[in-house]
Amino acid sequence: MTTLVLLHSALGRTSGMDAIAERFALAGHAVHTPDVYAGRTFDDAESGVAHSQELGFSTLVDRVKDACEDLGDDLVFGGFSLGAALAQQMGKNDPRARGVLLFHGGGFPKPTRWQAGVPVQAHFAVDDSWRSPGTIETLMESATKAGAQAEYFLYPGSTHLFSDPTTPDYREDSAELLYERALAFLDRF
User: The Dienelactone hydrolase domain covers which part of the protein (predicted)?
Assistant: First the structure.
């Protein structure tokens, strides 16, 4: 059993996020889903991103840290879109991180420090307009240089949150493959 900290997208902790968390829990993992928006949810990414910018990234990271304070020493951080950026930050800096799962987000514009031996797995749609070219490759390179296993997967299409069953972006075939790969990643711990 892995302790998974699953971080929501800019839409907030929605019913879709709860369904995703349940999927990981049914596979035998202890799943924690901190609500870094304190109950706020949004119907569109632009409004959610605006809210995250109002709060500030460092505030969101602090909220994740506070939510994880009593979870123990071995954590896998996973996140969706905005949540992937938060999971990445925790994987980069939190000494309890044992792995990082990035769904529809993550990456660095330039090489950076990564924790030695903390593996990372990332998932994107190939034509996702929210994906910044080269940034995930830079993260993979930084992680590999730190001695971490790093892998990323591209899926057909252009939708963003294709793994969230409650969004119009949902693509069942791609989502099923994403969850199969993510669960195999978690089984390594």
Answer: 4-188
